[in-house]
């Protein structure tokens, strides 16, 4: 596991140098295939992936340990995984699955422990016939979220 520790250290240095980038996932397989998934507060460019890749690759010794390296960005359709991803998507529409149901709404807040969604719904009037549009809100803890994705609209 020395390889994984070295990669973690190099990634930390890369993210300190470019603090708008952050780690989503690091996988090091037994046969030394390294897969790094990154995201950024302002998105991720190809240059960002190249920068992180070079930071890792140029500081590891292939003579000591052979490896393959893949650095990718979190895709637009990938589920959100960490609070920092939610924070960068405040104002966007999310689809969130929990154990208790599904929610679709605008992400209006994200803290270290939960998110707040807001949406409009049509409900029967309290008195009389017909429906009325009401504002709904839900605060969901990260631990209750099974999956959350940004809804892409065109």
From TrEMBL:
GO biological process, any: ribosomal small subunit biogenesis
Pfam families linked to this entry: RimP_N
Keyword match Cytoplasm: yes
Keywords, comma-separated and alphabetical: Cytoplasm, Ribosome biogenesis
GO cellular component, one term: cytoplasm
TM helices/strands, residue ranges: none
InterPro entries linked: Ribosome_maturation_RimP, RimP_N, RimP_N_sf
Subcellular location, principal: cytoplasm
Subcellular localization, as worded in the UniProt entry: Cytoplasm
Ranges of residues in domain Ribosome maturation factor RimP N-terminal: 19-76
Family listed: Belongs to the RimP family.
Function noted in UniProt: Required for maturation of 30S ribosomal subunits.
Protein name: Ribosome maturation factor RimP
Organism: Zunongwangia atlantica 22II14-10F7
